[in-house]
Amino acid sequence: MNDPANFSFQECLHFLGRSDKECLHYIVDGKLRRMLLAGGEPVVVEIAQGGDAAYLEATVLAPAGVMFPEKDIQDFVTRWLHLDADLGDFYAYTQTDPLLRGLAAEYRGLRLVGMPDLFEAVTWPIIGQQINLSFAYTLRQRFIRHFGYHQQVDGTDYYLYPHPAVIASLTPEVLTPMQFSRSKAQYLVETATVMASGQLSEQVLAPLDYAAARDRLVALKGIGNWSANYTLMKYSRFPQAVLLEDAGLQNAVRQRLQLPAKPSMAALQEYTRPWQQHAAYAVFYLWRSLLPPLNV
DNA sequence: ACCCAGGCGTTCG
DNA sequence: CGAACGCATGGG
């Protein structure tokens, strides 16, 4: 990994454990378990802190007795936990910004936990927009359990996020009884169709710069500026992605500055304008500041 | 009962 | 153009 002095597995685990409705990964005895694709095949892996804390160790829990491309697993974890990041510049910047000062010391080593799956990174904002987080996680759990590839290992259910082709084959009427709004159900099926047909893919997005990628995503129905920037932050990892319209960001700013009410959009633009290439990490650390501290 | 939620698309003035 | 409004429903 890069910048091991600024890596804390514990901080990353704390963020990953924020919802008890999570079903794409589990935390067991300070280790991280999930299913992922290696060599195109589903594998259940356990990720643990290495001996000197400067690296992570991945163990294949299932299927047993089969060799899997180690590099695929390593690449996945690197992208998931942003192990290739270098936080030095961001930490230096936080000391110069009144809104961010102190975040580096409080949460040192927290990496911007991402989403290596494009379909997940595009559809999770659709699922979660406008509703409270608790209900959003409930809907996500239903979505994954109903439509994701599933495998049970040692009595635990592991899932892959649903494949676009599976969702593309649905009608919105399948989703509305599961308490997705009509609009969300429609956006999910439409987005899945666009991805299943290859009109939106890793390859389509990869060559685009920040503005072009944002425009491509916003062209999808149900994806506005907030959702597009979410995808650009969590999947594409554009460092300048900023979630201006985010209620969580607005609450974190209010809290840190002791404002009587949430900041106006104009005020928020003032606060965030200097962030530039630090915006994605700034937002993520401010989200972290809304979670309980580590030692509770 | 009321307001807000990690918004977005549509309609209105 | 920007502002206002409807969506759906859980949670405080």
UniProtKB/TrEMBL annotation:
It comes from the Bacteria. Residues 127-291 form the HhH-GPD domain. CDD domains: ENDO3c. Its EC number is 3.2.2.21. It comes from Chitinophaga eiseniae. Transmembrane segments: none annotated. GO terms for biological process: base-excision repair, AP site formation; DNA alkylation repair; nucleotide-excision repair. It is an enzyme of class 3 (hydrolase). GO terms for cellular component: cytoplasm; protein-DNA complex. One of its GO terms (molecular function) is DNA-3-methyladenine glycosylase activity. Keywords: DNA damage, DNA repair, Hydrolase. It catalyses: Hydrolysis of alkylated DNA, releasing 3-methyladenine, 3-methylguanine, 7-methylguanine and 7-methyladenine. This is DNA-3-methyladenine glycosylase II. InterPro entries: AlkA_N_sf, Alkylbase_DNA_Glycosylase/TA, DNA_glycosylase, HhH-GPD_domain, OGG_N.
